[in-house]
């Protein structure tokens, strides 16, 4: 197979490995005293890990010249959606027993769920529009829409932060990574604006 196909197979297997492990641990009853909570937390963690991996692609391409990563960014993003749906489904089934009235009550009562729900909706929208056909249909709006992944990551971090009961270690670590990934992009955007202003200033001088 061509190298790109080998890489896709490897990424697919690595991406599914956490799901395979949690499934095996569930079946073999290795999840401790509260398996439902363990499953929900595990799938939530892998949602945010997958977002970290996805948003690390552009910096790695830019700084390390790992251009081979670019064709695989969509797959990484789809894994974020996959684990987000697993997270939501496991919460609805194992915690709430598919009681939707209780879900809406929890949505209004618990701020961390209020933050997490729109993040999942964003990931669903990005997953649905990730195909080549949707890229052609949406045109420039496709890029605008997919920049919402930054908001999804931020809301995901807020979702983690607002659940903290004792140790803030994970929340702080996730916050540092989130700030780095979003800060890099803010700096790149600032550079683009500076270049545009400099170009506009030079054009104005040439016309005077």
TrEMBL record:
Membrane topology classification: Multi-pass membrane protein
Necessary cofactors: heme b; FMN
Ferric oxidoreductase domain span: 47-156
This protein's record includes keyword Electron transport: yes
Cell membrane among keywords: yes
Main location: membrane
Subcellular location as annotated: Cell membrane; Membrane
Entry's cofactor comment: Binds 1 heme b (iron(II)-protoporphyrin IX) group per subunit. Binds 1 FMN per subunit.
Annotated Pfam families: Ferric_reduct
Record keywords, A-Z: Cell membrane, Electron transport, Flavoprotein, FMN, Heme, Iron, Membrane, Metal-binding, Transmembrane, Transmembrane helix, Transport
Superkingdom of source: Bacteria
Record field: transmembrane: 41-64, 76-98, 110-128, 148-165, 171-188
UniProt similarity note: Belongs to the MsrQ family.
Biological role stated in the UniProt entry: Part of the MsrPQ system that repairs oxidized periplasmic proteins containing methionine sulfoxide residues (Met-O), using respiratory chain electrons. Thus protects these proteins from oxidative-stress damage caused by reactive species of oxygen and chlorine generated by the host defense mechanisms. MsrPQ is essential for the maintenance of envelope integrity under bleach stress, rescuing a wide series of structurally unrelated periplasmic proteins from methionine oxidation.
Entry-linked HAMAP family: MsrQ
Subunit description: Heterodimer of a catalytic subunit (MsrP) and a heme-binding subunit (MsrQ).
Protein name: Protein-methionine-sulfoxide reductase heme-binding subunit MsrQ
Organism field: Gilvimarinus japonicus
Gene from which this protein is expressed: msrQ
């Amino acid at each position: 197979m061509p190298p790109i196909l080998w890489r896709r197979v490897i990424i697919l297997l690595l991406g599914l490995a956490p799901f395979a492990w949690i499934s095996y641990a569930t079946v073999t009853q290795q999840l401790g005293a509260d398996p439902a909570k363990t499953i929900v937390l595990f799938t939530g963690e892998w949602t945010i890990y997958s977002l970290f991996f996805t948003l690390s692609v552009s910096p790695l391409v830019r700084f390390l010249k790992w251009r081979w990563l670019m064709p695989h960014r969509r797959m990484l993003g789809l894994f974020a959606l996959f684990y987000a749906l697993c997270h939501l489904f496991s919460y609805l089934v194992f915690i709430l027993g598919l009681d939707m009235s209780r879900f809406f009550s929890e949505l209004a009562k618990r701020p961390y769920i209020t933050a997490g729900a729109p993040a999942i909706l964003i990931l669903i929208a990005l997953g649905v529009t990730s195909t080549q056909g949707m890229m052609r249909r949406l045109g420039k709006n496709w890029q605008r829409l997919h920049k919402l992944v930054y908001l999804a990551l931020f809301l995901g971090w807020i979702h983690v932060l607002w659940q903290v009961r004792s140790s803030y270690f994970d929340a702080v670590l996730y916050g540092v990574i989130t700030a780095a990934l979003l800060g890099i992009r803010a700096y790149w955007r600032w550079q683009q604006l500076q270049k545009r202003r400099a170009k506009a200033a030079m054009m104005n001088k040439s016309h005077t």
